[in-house]
Amino acid sequence: MLTIVWDVDDVLNDLMHAWFKHSWLADHPDGKIRYEDLTGNPPHHLLGMTRQQYLRSLDAFRNSARGQAMLPNAALLKWFHVYGHLARHVALTSRPLNTVPLLSQWVFRHFGVWIRTFAFVPARADKAIPFYDRDKRGYLKWLAKTDVLVDDSTENIKDARDLGIKGLLYPRTWNRSDLTVDQLLRILTQEVKAKK
Known about the structure:
alpha/beta, 5 strands, about 45% helix
């Protein structure tokens, strides 16, 4: 049975789109930029903000009621309903510690039938907490059981492939995935059926 590790933000959910719609556009109703124009992640330079301002706004949204009300990625949820039982699943995110408890609840509320393990690598943490892994690569190396990583970060996919893990780059406006969502899900379906 395959073990699939799933990024959460912008894979299992549409965090950037939800933040852009409910936070950025709410504060900039006359803004000319569209979500489709966000070709960088983080997109602060495209939005005329500092990285610190962007991250502060994003983290506030993550912990807001609206952030908790985000719907799961419909295409992935549909896939899980049909094929999720054919693999083991791990959610892996990189976030500030103060945003993790609510995210873990969100993951288990929407995907808990299939995802039984939730892991995170602390982002932007102060030195007061222990660091077991500095990035997802470190976590994946420690786990040593991952067959497939699904992530929207080109760097994370490259790291996974360097470790011998099949990496599937989830298509977003800020990456150059050569897959559509349908193509990615077809590949996953073939993988889980081959290893069941």
